[in-house]
Amino acid sequence: MTMPLSRDLGSLLREQAARFGSHPALIGMGETTGYAALTQRAARIAAFFTARGIQRGDRIGLLMNNRPEWVETFFGAVMAGAVVVAFSTWSKRDELAYLIDDSGIRLLVTLDRFSGQDFAADLRTIAAPDVVMLGDDPGWLPYSTMLDASPAPPGTPVRPQDDAIIIYTSGSSSRPKSVPLSHGSVIENGFNIGHRQGYAENDRVLLAPPLFWSYGSANALSAVLTHGATLVLQAQFDAGEALDLIEQYRCTALYTLPAITAALIAHPGFRRKRTASLRTGLTIGAPQDVVTAAEVLGAREICNVYGQTETYGNCCVTWHHWPLERRAACQGPPLPGVTIRIVDETTGAVLPADQPGLIEVKGHVMRGYVGASASQTAAAMTTDGFFRTGDMGELTAAGDMRFIGRTTEMIKKGGINIAPAEVEDVLMRHPAVSLAGVVGVPDATRGELIAAFVVPKPGQIVTEAGLTAHCRELASRYKVPDFIAVRDALPVTVTGKLLRRDLKVLAAEFVK
């Protein structure tokens, strides 16, 4: 499949509607929306925004879970020339107040409440702009009003380099960083991500991770729609419901994370025949996580990836048709339009192949942080335009990226750098282990020691002694955990991403 001609997202949706018509673009909340219908709804919303005085470059906040209204509001905004600011549905009142103030939005489109969060009540207590609300809470402009307008005709397209979406991403600072992503790069990078996965218009892709993440919006949404495929939205991850969606809609691909994969496999309702339709998708994690997604879950052509919000969700993706052993061992070559180099942590010198160092990325990279985090841009970017990821990795002689770990997560034991993912991979090779999490704990003599937490598979029993023996058989001595604890569950986000900071708190019990 060839890349669409459009280089702004509003034009892209119109182009795909002309090409695919009633072919399903979205499935979510029990409804199926075709490309033409999605375009019409987005055009009505664009007309509403224009009538409210929204101008090119103005910002519109979007606070919703994964649902069709998120997508149609997003495209309505970009059709009107506005920039979408994606807010997390995990935001508490004080966090929401900061996001609204820092982003400078002109209008907010939101749910009244979701997953225990009462956004309507929060918005009554903070300084908020105009609010359009989906739900039954009175006193706000109802969401349905946006769909009453006559569809807006195509206006002057925005430029490919103009901002399309701003995503807030957590980091080492106390406040999240504000990352702007442009129309042209969202389209081009997203298409190439989908191409590496082997997408075609008959694919149906399950997305449980949130659209307010770059993994969802800049990555999955663009990858799917640029190929004329169908995005199946899960409102909020639940393993049982995800299995139902895969089976009901015959999903051929999914966006997953190690903890999501583990939860699907551990669910009492899991049967391989229920996921037999899966073929491809994306995941991150240690080699064994990729193998598990392919061989146990059944997404046999699942792709391993590397990236961050600042690099449009992913900058490296393996090819779906590679042998599984190769896909598990690396994160693939850089995507088209992306350059990656590995530099020495101390000198900054560019390193040759197979030498570990710091990862720097150029090409489809943010233009710089905005809002209060703009002051952090200089530290994040080199003078020649590379983004400093803060990650360690290496490039193979074949040009494949091998991610080693976050510099802030590396365990320094006796002067040796150990990536938690390496130890987690060894633990995950134990046939009774479903999930593993590893962090460092301070030690007066050796700097740090290795603390590991494991969750056994349903009906399986594991012991510290047995796991230690397993690790000694497969790993170098310095990689064998010093402490191992068996848990029923590990701290993860609602989408299944491991919370290492919470693991650090749990690990403190080992050094008391």
What report would you give on this structure?
With 512 residues, the protein is α/β, with parallel strands linked by helices. It folds into 2 domains: 9-297, ANL, N-terminal domain (Rossmann fold, 3-Layer(aba) Sandwich); 411-511, GMP Synthetase, Chain A, domain 3 (2-Layer Sandwich), CATH 3.30.300.30. 30% of the residues lie in helices and 24% in strands. Strands 2-1-13-12-14-15-16-17 form an 8-stranded mixed sheet, with helices on both faces. Strand 15 (280-283), helix 10 (287-297) and strand 16 (303-306) form a beta-alpha-beta unit. The longest helix has 17 residues, at 35-51. The protein starts with 8 loop residues before the first helix and ends in a 5-residue tail after the last helix.
